[in-house]
Fold these 4 entries.
Entry 1:
Amino acid sequence: MAGILKPEKIDGISLVPVMKNPKKLTKKYAVSQYPRDENKMGYSLRDGKYRYTIWVEWKNKVSNFDKIIAEELYDYEKDPLETVNQVNVKSYARIAKAMKQYMAEYLHSQK
């Protein structure tokens, strides 16, 4: 947009497509991480419609992804205030499975 060439050794991606079309996505989801207390850490994925969160054991500032304490799935079109966890609701099984796969991909990419 500024009319200059992109440097060869630079991290990141261009946001020009999003600036030209705000409905265009650069990623499947946004990621956030936050502690609940001294022994739980939450990892959330948010796409345009859903938020999926896993809570894992967190000891000595290390997350144990083999010890999932709880899961949450919220539908922001139907429940923008996150009042009903849909993670175990049969009609959301396909969405929950996809979000779990995205979470696995994300966690694997962090190793």
Note: The chain has one domain: 28-109.
Entry 2:
Amino acid sequence: MVAHLECEVISPVDVVLSIAVANGPALADEAMTLTLDGSPIDMTEVLDDHGTRLHAARRVPRGRLVADYSADITSFALPAEVRPIDLVRYLRPSRYCESDRLSPVARAEFADLSGPDLLAAVSSWVGTRLGYVPGSSRPIDGAVATLLARQGVCRDFAHLVIAFLRACDVPARLVSVYAPGLSPMDFHAVAEAYVDGQWNIVDATCLAPRSTMVRIATGRDAADTAFMSTSSGLIVLTGMEVVAYTDGVLPHDDVDAVAQLR
């Protein structure tokens, strides 16, 4: 897994990056650097829920900021743990997943469905009714705006899936991932839904095999999982490159079967 970000800091800014692989998988090698005009600057690792690892740099002065991250995974972790609080938190409406507003649509479209059948139906509904159009959505758009526009990118697909599932009383959350096989290559976002005692991946884009995805960050929606967040200043992202690959041939992904992030 490789991530490279280039930014121009216009005025001193606090930066939080979420590009490191979450705690869990065994790593043969991992490296992360942050430089300003070629000189290293200090970062602090901050642990979040579900093994999420944030890296924060405070009051970064003006200049060219570059972040580089790489990791080589040798073995995956166990499936995600199930905490009682998560089954409460991820049923609630959130900023980008307005399940309360979309409840009438969800109840009408997915009445009498449950378990894996519900996950498959929601994924198919979203995947066939939205167009995947890079650049078509705004950072402030949530599930309602996506449903009205009928287009978006991976986070928009995931937000709508999550909103529908929560409206059907299924705990659901957003996960940012590295996704080998994704085209065009980028950070990817999928939904994770609690069904039959475990967290299952739901990816309505069907753009990459679910079984090879690697967890970065997990939360209510994109507000909790953005690859970079800033405050107290101004910064412009000027370049980004993401690479994710796996040894050998990519596995076939049976979209009708359940799958878990590890």
Note: The mean pLDDT is 96.
Entry 3:
Amino acid sequence: MTLDIICQRLHNQLLSQTKYTQPDQVVEWLGAVQAQDYAGAKWALGLRLKTATDGAIEKAFSEGRILRTHVMRPTWHFVTPADIRWMLALTAPRVLPHLTYGDRQLGLDKTILKRSNTILAKALKGGKQLMRSELEPILQRGGVNTDGLRFIHLLMHAELDGIVCSGGRRGKQFTYALLDERAPQAKTLGRDEALAKLTRRYFQSHGPATLQDYIWWSGLTAADARKGIEAVKLEFEQEVVDDQTYWFPASTPIGVPSPTVHLLPDFDEYMVGYTDRSSIFDVAHTDKLDSRGSILNQYAIVIAGRVAGTWKRTIKRNEVAIELSSFKPLKKIEDQAVYAAAQQYSQFLELRDVVI
């Protein structure tokens, strides 16, 4: 039987079915969720819950049931408090080299970074959650130069060193909090155990996927990725398609009725979780994307598991206006399914109307 990559991925990524009711359950299942577009990442979680609202996910974030930090690749991800310590220990050494050149150009060395971490830890101690605009002058008063990009690098190092992570938002502004206080029960794992755990999380939630997909998603070396697969391979099925070995859980997903439509946010795990996206996106449509030319940073219309266009949204007081740009004219039944998906998004935002 030919491997149905799309059907399996929709199932394992919780897009065609889900048993979860809490956002931290989804984050734990997926391992980590790319989250530099905070609003988009909240919608990515909402799509994978039985019922969800933006407000409920915001509440979980404010309460620290999901955290946001730099991990795996050099960008923000949602992770759970239970996973953040061992995941940072495993992947931070792979992210730090991305900062090396900038650190050198900015004159940041180990002594400065240690001083910055100490000052930040002292400023946040006792449950304080402070915005960037509050932390920067504290560092300056402590004798740490924060000019230009230095401040951003200092905060990223503090995240990767396990000193700080996200606090709750204050209005629309993000805050930082002490990781020790935000996730006091966070476990550390031996390196081999952590490697096996991350590998298992990835293939259970993103499979069918290849070694190269996993290397891209995790940021690990090829040697570590292979070692992780070797540790858990007996827990998964494998199949060779076009000379590529795909690993996936031994589940039996139900067929996805057509046309099933998902309005995905940018950087959704359904697209960003793989280096090879040929099964879901035809590169012949690249010229229909915006000037950035990448499907990753587009809000995507996905019909029956394949990218069929892009969408934009404008949120107003009582409604959300959605602008669609399909790659080809949609059939009437597809139009109806798109409208239903747009209504789902409107309900997630707790707005009264949706305008297309």
Note: The longest strand covers residues 306-315.
Entry 4:
Amino acid sequence: MNEKKIMVVEDDRNLLDTLKYNLCKDGYNVVLAADGSEAIETARKTMPDLIVLDIMLPTLSGYEVCRILRKETNVPILMLTARTDEVDKIVGLEIGADDYMTKPFSMRELLARIRAMIRRSEMIAPTQATTVERLKINNLEIDIERHQAFQNEKELELSPKEFDLLVFLARNHGLVFSREQLLEKVWGYDYAGDSRTIDVHIRWLRQKIENDPSKPENLVTVRGTGYKLSG
């Protein structure tokens, strides 16, 4: 039995118990943490397959936990926030979270997101582990096996989701994809929230791969349609 391990980081005891009950009912092995410091220690010790991470935590915020863990692991991270500010959501995505949900949320939707994120990570992992593929587009070079990307031979610091997005666009360079198509192909499911997740990642990829992000030459917008990687 391939029982996936989910780590839930939440300081609201009632919500923590509710999440544990529903995740266990859905067949997951659940480990818990109630503050930021405990989350980092528990993640390192238990090596979960996915992390559900609240933003507002004692000792260290969810942002800090995400930033620290993202340097050590590519584990999918789903952030929970009670805030509705778009800025808070964008910050989470920028530091390496794969997805976010705003409280209050539907437990059914949360479980669906978790299943999809795990499916996506399972699809990506074997490819990364076995392929020797290297992609070259314009002044970009991507080493799939080593999970590295370079521009003019200088390594780029990309979050896991930025890397996945760049790889997908590079493999399909010249083709135009809508936001919805990118969410399905890169995130691996029909995203239930708004499509600004894509805009955030596109903007930050441009900051890293364009000489002038305001006038992109590699990752371009096709007005009214979507995005493509030229080459």
Note: Residues 126-132 have pLDDT under 50 and may be disordered.
